[in-house]
Hints:
By secondary structure, this protein is an alpha/beta fold.
Amino acid sequence: MPDSIHAGHAKRRLPEAGLPGVADARVLPDDSFEAAWSSVFLADELKDRLLQTVASNIRLRATVPFEALPLHGVVLLTGRPGVGKTTLARGLADKIARVVGGLGHWAFIEVDPHALASSSLGRSQRSVEALFGQLLEEQAGQGPLVVLLDEVETLLTDRAALSMEANPIDVHRAVDAALVGLDRLARRHPDVVVLATSNFADAIDPALASRADMVVQIPVPDRHGRRAILEHTIAAIVAAFPGAAPLLGGAVLDHAAQISEGIDGRRLRKAVAAACANDSCDPERVTADDLYASLQRTREQL
Ligand SMILES: Nc1ncnc2c1ncn2[C@@H]1O[C@H](COP(=O)(O)OP(=O)(O)OP(=O)(O)O)[C@@H](O)[C@H]1O
Ligand SMILES: [Mg+2]
């Protein structure tokens, strides 16, 4: 283990692995998260704006009273499945820790919302209160923190859309507890950033969107983005199977990007893998036609 990680752990006590409600806990910066940031191809302008907004808001929150400027440090990323929201959020967490200095050692906690949900009355409310009131509060007390609330609609379900069958009183209380927890964290800790993601913008309680300092809809990649994703995926395959190198030709990538309109980043990467499952089942022998045919099949499944 590198010394820097040792040093980070010595400075920050992370929650134990496997604690209910915690999907991941680590010290930032983190090299694998840095790779995540550079592997997501979106307009540079969008990535820059995200980072600049978070960094600037941390500075504002540390100096301007909450009553005058109610910034919660919450960024909400929405968009279709597979457009890179979770990957981008992890990458952003790493970037924040690298760019915003002088606050101490950053930590990262990914919340597992499914572990907090429970059908037994009162339990999810208590789990949510324990998460925000104890675990996150304790972590925030140690220093700057990025919290990832992935698939946030599970935790902050739209209360107005609840049917009466699904134990709505319990869900109401859990959502209330999460909102109270977010408010308390925001007021007490200007160096806590909450990154939330969702495929279901309509299923999220509007009180979360109202607390978000920034709501960003992550788009399906355009032709430029699709070309970059295909190139990145194919280059990784070529590194292991040099015979696949012809797929990296400019004309092949241009055409592949052109015929793959509407395909999200996850399916694009999978389509490259599927192209390798050609007649010879040998990635060394994959052809441009295999790639085009695979992308065509993916498009037909959209
Ligand atoms: N714009 C993109 N650029 C590069 N890779 C992408 C992009 N969008 C998605 N991917 C890739 O697709 C895979 C899935 O991404 P990710 O899990 O971040 O998507 P998501 O939006 O969180 O999906 P879901 O809503 O289903 O959770 C990852 O391997 C990611 O690198
Ligand atoms: Mg995701």
